[in-house]
Design brief:
The protein is mostly helical. About 95% of the residues lie in helices and about 0% in strands.
Length: about 110
């Protein structure tokens, strides 16, 4: 009977060891799956981040181009305003000269 108990103990020990080994194998498989999923997620995040960075670069370029366009338009508008001011000043000067002539015709200046 002692032999039988020893044999059962040995079988139980073997069963426990085998069970532990199987559990470790399963845990390793689970960890490998988790690692694979993490790697897939990391790659996906990297692609997303690269896309966002590229979009940011594009937006910055568009902003720079728009800023340059607006600055050029402002310069053009200022130049047009300057030209209009000069034209208006010339016309006002011409009108003033004509007014003086008319005033001189209606109210001649007498010299003593």
């Amino acid at each position: 009977m002692n032999t039988h108990i020893e044999k059962v103990k040995e079988e139980f020990t073997n069963y426990k060891e085998n069970n532990e080994i199987e559990n470790r194998k399963k845990n390793i498989e689970i960890l490998q799956l988790i690692n694979e999923e993490n790697e897939t997620l990391r790659k996906s995040m990297e692609v997303s981040l690269n896309n966002v960075n590229n979009d940011i670069k594009d937006v910055k370029e568009h902003i720079t181009n728009f800023k340059e366009y607006v600055e050029k338009r402002i310069k053009d508008i200022n130049n047009i305003m300057d030209m209009n001011r000069k034209e208006i000043d010339e016309k006002i000067e011409h009108i003033c000269m004509n007014q003086k002539k008319l005033m001189g015709d209606f109210y001649p200046y007498k010299k003593n």
